[in-house]
Amino acid sequence: MLYYASTDNLWYGDDTNDIAVGVEACYFSDKERSRKSFDNACKIAVFICKEYGINPRNQMPGHYQIQADKIVPKSVLEACGYSKDMSVVDKYVLKYLDGVAKESKPKESKPAPKPTSKATQKSPVKKQPKTAKRIKPWSEKAHYSGKIKYNASLRERSGDSFNNYSFGHEKGILGKGETVYIFEEIQDEQGNIWCRMYTPANKSWVHKHTIAVSK
To answer: Which Pfam families does this one have (predicted)?
Structure first.
């Protein structure tokens, strides 16, 4: 996964490159072959859940649920003849997770009934755009120091206000074990907290998740 995947970060509350894993499933024109692929993908998901302590009930979203331009796993579910909903995946994964998987298959999808009357269309609710915000103000004395937990992306901030701050440009890598001193913290619109190092003239920022705070 990529750093700075904003929608994914919102779902997981952190940088998905560090804390998330995805499972892919192939699908085919042959329904039974697609079902075998789907079944194998569910078993892989079960292994990952057990290995990393993931709760599939609330920590296993479909890609379409966190990214508007994606439809998976709806495509493989459709190829299997199943209902195009994550609940089908959840049921299979939970069965295998509980060790009581059966050969029974999910109910196949049925055409939705045609509406008998026009539904009242509600106006979309306008949401206020999210902006960045300062967590810790600039200080001449470091707020704290720490060591980099693993090779971390060193970022440069762009933009001139909290409405358009971005930390997407990588300018280098900080090696594992390097000591850093943090003088300011800003949370971007996706919820990531970025930490400024050294002085105001230095535009180097690092993700807070990568720092093991010492003091």
So the answer is: SH3b_T
